[in-house]
Write a structure and sequence with these properties.
The protein is of the alpha/beta class. The protein has two domains: about 150 residues, Rossmann fold (3-Layer(aba) Sandwich), CATH 3.40.50.1000; about 100 residues, Eukaryotic phosphomannomutase, cap domain (Hypothetical Protein, Haloacid Dehalogenase-like Hydrolase, Chain: A, domain 2, 2-Layer Sandwich). Helix content is about 40%, strand content about 20%. The longest helix is centred in the middle third of the chain and has 28 residues.
Length: about 260
């Protein structure tokens, strides 16, 4: 895998740069700053802009000239922001009220059909409106925010026991919503956005807006396997490196910046 000659490095966020719904750690923030001194960098993840700011941007200690090399694609590339004296919107594919209602009804109907029994204890919204995306989270959106490391552990435990169930729900929701894109994301989430918008779409938007060809990009993510929420990038032909978590990601960043 050739990493050195790439102009732009693309990362997943949760499970790659940080643990799920958690801040990037100080050593990762320092590694990102050093990378931004040498390369352009993009991050594509399922979280909202607010979540990106909380997890990632709030922890970076670098001058604005370096932030100009960072490009963020929240809610699975349904939106795009870049730094120009502040985080400025490039595009935002917002769902209509009618579309949001259709998505919510699809989840309701699927849960009824399969007799879904939710966990006894949840934290925050189960179905969250992220404007450009509707997201189901089995344990609630705030489980990590409320419980910290225990919340991360609960999410990992849930997915070990219920991965087949989550994939079944995603498949059935997709069947009811043929005009939408349904992604089984992260440990406990299912994201729904407009048809054709996924992480491959994000790669193509990078190529379009930043004028960096796909062959000059490198993607790093923890879910590049078939069925994973990073798998879609493989459709673009972008070179990709699978990682097991932030620790492995940091090693790769160090290899790039020390070359």
């Amino acid at each position: 895998m050739e990493k050195i000659g790439k102009q732009l490095i693309v990362f997943d966020l949760d499970g790659t740069l940080a643990e799920t719904k958690s801040y990037v750690k100080p050593d990762m923030a320092r590694a990102i700053t050093r990378l931004l001194e040498r390369r352009k960098m993009a991050v594509i993840g399922g979280g909202s802009l607010k979540q990106f700011k909380k997890q990632l941007m709030s922890k970076l200690r670098c001058p604005p000239k370096l932030l100009a090399n960072l490009f963020i694609f929240p809610t699975t590339a349904t939106s795009f922001y870049r730094y120009r004296g502040g985080w400025k919107k490039v595009y935002l594919h917002q769902l209509s009220k009618k579309e949001k209602a259709q998505i919510r009804e699809a989840f309701r109907a699927v849960f009824e059909d399969i007799h879904y029994i939710p966990p006894k204890k949840t934290y925050g919204k189960i179905i969250e409106d992220r404007k450009t995306q509707i997201t189901f989270s089995a344990l609630g959106q705030d489980v990590v925010g409320v419980l910290g490391k225990k919340g991360i552990r609960l999410k990992k435990e849930w997915t070990k026991k219920n991965k087949a169930l989550k994939m079944k729900i995603a498949k059935l929701v997709q069947k009811r919503l043929p005009r939408f894109e349904v992604h089984a994301a992260g440990y406990t989430s299912i994201d729904v956005a407009r048809k054709g918008i996924d992480k491959a779409y994000g790669i193509r938007q990078i190529e379009k807006h930043l004028h960096v060809p796909v062959k000059k990009m490198l993607f790093i993510g923890d879910a590049l396997f078939r069925g994973g929420n990073d798998y879609a990038v493989r459709k673009t032909g972008v070179e990709a490196i699978p990682v097991s978590g932030p620790r492995e990601t940091k090693k790769i960043i160090k290899e790039i910046i020390s070359a």
